[in-house]
Design brief:
Layout: H1 6-18, H2 22-47, H3 49-54, H4 57-70, H5 82-119, E1 130-133, H6 138-149, E2 157-162, H7 166-176, E3 184-189, H8 195-198, E4 208-211, H9 219-232, E5 240-244, H10 250-257, E6 261-265, H11 266-279, H12 283-291, E7 297-301, H13 311-314, E8 321-328, E9 331-334, E10 347-352, E11 384-388, H14 394-404, E12 409-415, E13 430-436, H15 442-446, E14 455-458, H16 466-487, E15 492-497, H17 503-506, E16 513-516, H18 517-530, H19 535-541, E17 548-553, E18 562-565, H20 566-575, E19 579-584, E20 597-599, E21 606-609, E22 614-619
Helix pairs in contact: 2-4, 2-5, 4-5, 6-18, 9-10, 11-14, 11-18
């Protein structure tokens, strides 16, 4: 290969210099300007000594040439020979060219700087902030919930980084979230998968990090790559919570993030909630109430004064908090056996409106023995369930349902989806039948004979976009409710939807439960970002093993239409081996935002429950 010539080397050096940006360009313009001034001044002093003498020699000519370059109009007042005038005109034209170029360079440099500021490329200098990496609909739920959790604190900051325009993020947050009170949101444009971009978020002093599954194809690959980038960075590592869409990617994500990263299996969590809601009306409302920061929150606390006391007696220990279980070194137990003795190593798990309100109460109201009802629990019997539509989450829903139902139960799947009913080998308790059906067609729905089913589950069809799928779901719900009214049938209806904004529309259909999967996952991520130790508690709640949430008829616990305190309700549930955590009024099941649910009521509160009301308990299935 021939060696580079000096001209090629010079051109290569010049190109590298120009590539350094605005400062290098200004430097070159300054050098050219200085060269032109010196050259024109020297030529003027040599070729027109008379005019140069009138301007105090070479030094004066330097000043005169500079003035001509800065103010080209000055040439109109020049006097002297033709050569002198020509040299001054040359200086003026050079000034026009150089300074117009300088204005362009400065304008472009300023524009680039403004664009960088607009993109949010400056380093976050906050401390104790919560970092959210990625952008999805869950970010709005998380921002709102974190602002509620820190409503009484000043200086709370949420820092968001995503490969989205900074202004677009801020605009969408303002439209969908509105005022967050004392909580500030800082947006940065960057790629969470790039360690260099992560340095902008000042992670060493962050409170926690939330990694979201982005919208689009293969979102888990993006999350796993982000976890790798977080694991490889130097410095302190704050607690990390990440959302994984597919259960099959959990192992890879755990390997990428390490043991200190907590993973939320989005599909699994939403599937379990749909199944539990289909079996017990109101479960989704109760779970949403436990997950948000509006009213009751879950706390863990060491309580030495309860050491040696049986769990059943501790249920009445707090006036404004509700005990629901114990956390031991071996793991979490919700609604353990009533004779379980609390030890020094145990933490009491409870629901309270705020941690400042958790105080042991004095001996209060006694249970009203005359009002207590001890209805016998009925044995599990086979059930018939109708599943409308199909999506990637449906297989998990069916397999989890198989773990709940009694042997001999039947599941009929009606959908026009090509994959409906596939991949369901190895079920133990369910017999599955698949029927092709357009679920928005009234005649097709009537042909299914919905009246023979106890439960109907309406899934979101993943062949359509989120809004389109929700619209089809709403049409199906309206058809089902009208069929119930016309045919005088009764079966529970649980629906899955994408957009929280469509919930208001869905309330017109009076579905028993509406599960907004993105909202549920967003609430769970916000809870774990604040308290990672709650992961075991929520994992236990959503598991088919052990105790779960059940809204059960109030008449099975206390006499209907009798005024009692919640102490009486707790005592009645205790005698059945259950933990009562609240109640639901049947007359308000369609009234937002609580939908009739009251969790953690004051134990001295007088309530009157009717045959249409429910007691919410933690119990074995």
């Amino acid at each position: 290969m021939a060696r580079a010539t000096w001209r090629e080397r010079l051109k290569y050096w010049f190109d590298n210099t120009m590539a350094r940006g605005t400062v290098a360009l200004i430097g070159w313009l300054t050098a050219v300007t200085t060269g032109v001034i010196v050259l024109v001044s020297a030529l003027t002093s040599w070729l027109t000594p008379a005019e140069a003498g009138e301007n105090n020699g070479f030094g004066g000519m330097l000043w005169m040439t500079l003035m001509h370059m800065l103010s080209p109009g000055k040439v109109a007042s020049d006097e002297g020979g033709a050569l002198y005038l020509a040299l001054m005109l040359t200086a003026s034209l050079g000034g026009l060219l150089i300074f117009s170029t300088l204005v362009g360079v400065l304008a472009n440099g300023l524009k680039s700087r403004i664009e960088d500021l607009r993109k949010g490329r400056s380093r976050v200098v906050e401390r104790g902030h919560t970092v959210i990496l990625g952008w999805s609909d869950q970010v709005f739920t998380i921002a709102v919930e974190l602002s509620k959790a820190h409503a009484s604190q000043r200086g709370t900051v949420i820092a968001i980084m995503a490969d989205v325009d900074k202004v677009a993020m801020e605009t969408e947050l303002k439209e969908k979230v509105g005022d967050l009170g004392r909580t500030r949101v800082v947006c940065r444009t960057g790629r969470p998968t790039e360690p260099a971009d992560l340095e902008l978020m000042n992670l060493n002093v962050a409170r926690s990090v939330v990694v979201l599954s982005p919208q689009g194809d293969d979102p888990d690959a993006h999350v796993i790559k982000t976890l790798l980038a977080l694991a490889k960075r130097a410095g302190d590592h704050p607690p990390v919570v990440a959302s994984i869409t597919s259960s099959g990617n959990i192992a890879a994500a755990r390997l990428a993030g390490g043991p200190d990263v907590h993973l939320v299996d989005s599909d699994d969590t939403a599937s379990r909630l749909i199944v539990q809601s289909s079996r017990q009306s109101g479960v989704s409302v109760v779970c949403m109430d436990l997950l948000n920061f509006d009213n009751g929150e879950i706390y863990l606390r060491h309580e030495p004064k309860l050491t040696g006391m049986p769990y059943g007696e501790s249920l009445q220990a707090y006036q404004t908090a509700t005990v629901i279980g114990l956390r031991r070194p071996s793991g979490v137990m919700l609604n353990p056996p009533m004779d379980t003795v609390i030890t020094d190593d145990d933490q009491v798990i409870m629901i309270a409106q705020d941690d400042s309100l958790i105080r042991l109460g004095k001996p209060g109201h006694r249970a009203d023995e005359a009002a207590i009802v001890l209805a016998e629990s009925l044995p599990a019997r086979p059930e018939r369930t109708l599943l409308l539509n199909w999506n990637t989450r449906a297989r998990q829903i069916v397999r989890q349902m198989d773990g709940y139902v009694a042997p001999g139960s039947v599941l009929d799947i009606a959908a026009a989806h090509p994959d409906a009913g596939t991949g369901l080998d190895g079920l133990r308790n369910l017999t599955v039948n698949v029927k092709e059906c357009d679920t928005i067609d009234r005649y097709a729905l009537e042909s299914l004979g919905a009246g023979v089913y106890e439960h109907v589950i309406v899934l979101s069809d993943d062949r359509y976009g989120g809004q389109h799928a929700d619209t089809r779901t709403l049409m199906t719900l309206l058809q089902l409710r009208d069929m119930q009214a016309v045919l005088a049938e009764r079966y529970s209806i649980v629906s899955e939807m994408h957009d929280e904004n469509n919930r208001t529309l869905a309330e017109v259909t009076k579905a028993d439960d509406i599960v907004i999967s993105d909202t549920v996952i967003g609430l769970l991520l916000a809870q774990l970002a604040e308290s990672r130790h709650l992961a075991e508690v929520f994992g236990y709640l959503f598991d088919s093993r052990g105790s779960e949430i059940y809204p059960r008829p109030a008449q099975d616990y206390v006499r209907p239409d009798t005024s009692v305190t919640f102490t009486t309700v707790i005592e009645s549930a205790r005698r059945r081996g259950e933990t009562a955590i609240g109640y639901r009024l049947g007359a308000k099941v369609n009234e937002a935002p609580a939908y009739g649910v009251t969790l953690n009521p004051d134990k001295s509160q007088e309530i009157t429950l009717t045959e249409d009301d429910y007691v919410i308990v933690l119990a074995e299935s």
